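User: Hey, my collaborator sent me this sequence without any context and asked if I could get a structure. I don't really work with proteins. Can you help?
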Amino acid sequence: MSGHSKWATTKYRKGAQDAARAKVFAKIIRQVEVAAREGGSDLSANATLRTMYAKARDASVPIDTIERAIKRGSGELEGVRYEPISYEGYGPDGVAVIVECLSDNRNRTGAEIRNLFNKSGGSMAEPGAVSWQFERKGTVAVPRGADEERVMEVAMEAGAEDLADDGDRWLVTTEPAELMAVRAALEAAGLEPGTAELVMVPTTTVAIEDEAAAKRVLRLIEALDDHDDVQNVYANYDIPDAVLAAYDG
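Assistant: No problem. I've predicted the 3D structure and written it out in structure-token form, which is a compact way to encode the shape of the chain:
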């Protein structure tokens, strides 16, 4: 059940030293606003908002900032109206890519995302062309210092599907509906869970072992992730750890 998580590296995450704190906050706050607009401001009745609220707190977004975002989303305060948009495409070497955005201008965002694909040697695809290669899952990160057997026991009893070794943390996988229940169970057990989020997990992967090819793929993922409207980027590459470690942007 446990072991190195092959798919965990397929969502490229830049190191904390590369990410601007303000940009991270802005992206999460957009998610909070949209969740409140689509499901209401009551955390107890809006599971998506609960997930986004927890994600914001995990990222150390101030509570008053989160509350203002909820009020903008629910219409209590004026604000820009963002809509969720997903784009699908193929990167270099046939890697499948899903880009999740929140935008106030669909045409502008679409044109800019298409340009990023084209500049990388990739291409945008029609809706559904790529998404069938992924499935939605929940993930909860638990610090590596926690006992693996204890994490597994608590998570499985709460409805988790899997536990994987993800470097300096254990990564618990759940069905989307079980995400917050599993996180709550881990927290109640004193296991200090970190980020809990919904992700797209590839069902098949593309092996990229050549360093030059890996750089082409990772530069596209990084360029997409840097776009202000982009919330998440998922790709089905499988790059060896040694090649990933050598990537310097």
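In plain terms: The two ends are 33 Å apart (CA to CA). You can pass these tokens on to your collaborator as they are.
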